[in-house]
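Cross-posting from the modeling subforum.

Setting up a comparison between two proteins and wanted a second pair of eyes on the formatting. Protein 1 (sequence, then structure tokens):
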Amino acid sequence: MTSIDHAPKRKPRPSGRDEARQFSSGAEGSPERWRRSADREAGVLHKDRLLARLSRIDGQVRGVARMVGEDRDCLDVLTQLAAVKAALNQVAMQLLENQARRCVARAMRDGESEAATAELLAVLKRIDGKAFG
């Protein structure tokens, strides 16, 4: 009877030259790829936090609607509306911070700082019409 070898075969280990070629070509294991992966992971975490915050705001808005339906005191309703507005402003600021830190910084590295700055200022004006002008 013959024996069958079921051990997995190993790939030959690449030489230093092969690794350098892999990094310089922007391949899967390159530092640039690692940076993009880290950015993507940070973006997912950021997105999850924003969605959780928006979910809480949604609950606040439903609570305000319930208060109006129950004919609650106007000052109580206005107080809750102010809290909702403040929470939405915090979400907007988090998004702006993310835009400035990631997207504008990338545009500056790529030599497109003027366009990125103009776009950011336009967004700020839309958020608060009194800002910057």
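Protein 2 (same layout):
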Amino acid sequence: MDEARIVEESGAKGYGTQESKLKLSKVQSAGMAAAMAALVISLCLPANVYLTKTGIKTVGILVAFLIMLVTEALPVVVTSLIFCGLMPVTGVTPDLGTALTGYSEPIVFFTLASFGIAAAMTTIPLSKRILRFPGRISGAL
């Protein structure tokens, strides 16, 4: 059997099919364009009294990152990896290792754990049971 037939029979979507192409909404396209514009503008601005050239680049990367996150132009993981890679490319950090040093802080793991617990609480009806318990004891439910 040739490879195309195996993919077709298994129902898997290949890389060249219409379903696998990236389809962006108007908001996502506008967000991507706005993020690129913010990044290009920050790279072209000169240093001033308040911020150095590196500071302006950092603010530009932050603004572009926030635009990409709010508009959900790309998945969060892809957006994060792209902007971590942009930091050494634009000269904000000397190398990729320096750009990734913040991920070794304990607060990152605390935040991830908090999101995980919140996701678990919303999918499991435990929170409803906890809220109904006082009502059952008091006779209100």
